[in-house]
C-alpha cells in the first residue's frame, strides 16, 4: 500500500511539473502549441502508423528537453544567485540541447509533411 501511495505522489509531483512549465515557461508553451499544430496537420494529411510514431517521438523529445532545460536553469538559480561562467555554461548547454532538438524537429517535419503536401497539391 505504501508503494501505491508513493507512486500516486510521484505522479502528482510530475503533473505539478507540467503545470509549472506550462504556466511559467514561454518556450514550453510554444513547443506545446507547435505540437498541437503538428498533430492537427498529421490528422489532416492522414499520417501512417510509422509517421505517427516518428511525429510522437520528436514531439515528446522536444518537450522533454524543454522540461530538462527548465529543471537545470532552476537548479542553477538555487545554487547561485551570482552570475558566473560555470552557471552560464550550464544554462547555455541546456538551452543548446533544446535548440538542437527543435532543429531536428523542423528537419523531421520537413521530411514528414512536405511529401504529403506535394502529393495533396499535385496528386
What features would you describe in this structure?
The protein has 123 residues and is mostly helical. Helix content is 90%, strand content 0%. The protein has 4 helices and no strands. The chain has helices at 2-24, 26-44, 49-79, 85-122. Helix 3 (49-79) runs antiparallel to helix 4 (85-122). The longest helix is centred in the C-terminal third of the chain and has 38 residues, at 85-122. The radius of gyration is 18 Å and the shape is flat. The model has no long low-confidence stretch (mean pLDDT 95).
Provide keyphrases for this structure:
mainly alpha, flat, 4 helices, 123 residues
H/E element string?
HHHH
Q: Looking at the chains present, what oligomeric state does this protein adopt?
A: single chain
Number of β-strand runs = 0
Tell me the fraction of residues in β-strands, as a range: under 5%
The major pleated sheet works out as:
none
Average residue pLDDT: 95
Category by helix and strand content: mainly alpha
- The radius of gyration over CA amounts to 18 Å
C-alpha end-to-end distance = 59 Å
Amino acid at each position: 500500500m505504501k508503494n501505491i501511495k508513493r507512486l500516486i505522489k510521484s505522479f502528482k509531483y510530475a503533473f505539478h511539473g507540467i503545470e509549472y512549465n506550462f504556466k511559467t515557461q514561454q518556450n514550453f508553451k510554444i513547443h506545446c502549441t507547435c505540437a498541437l499544430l503538428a498533430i492537427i496537420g498529421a490528422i489532416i494529411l492522414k499520417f501512417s502508423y510509422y509517421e505517427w510514431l516518428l511525429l510522437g517521438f520528436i514531439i515528446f523529445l522536444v518537450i522533454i528537453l524543454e522540461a530538462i532545460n527548465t529543471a537545470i536553469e532552476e537548479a542553477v538559480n538555487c545554487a547561485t544567485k551570482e552570475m558566473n561562467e560555470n552557471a552560464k555554461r550550464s544554462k547555455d548547454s541546456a538551452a543548446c540541447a533544446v535548440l538542437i532538438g527543435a532543429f531536428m524537429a523542423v528537419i523531421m517535419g520537413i521530411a514528414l509533411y512536405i511529401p504529403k503536401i506535394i502529393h495533396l497539391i499535385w496528386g
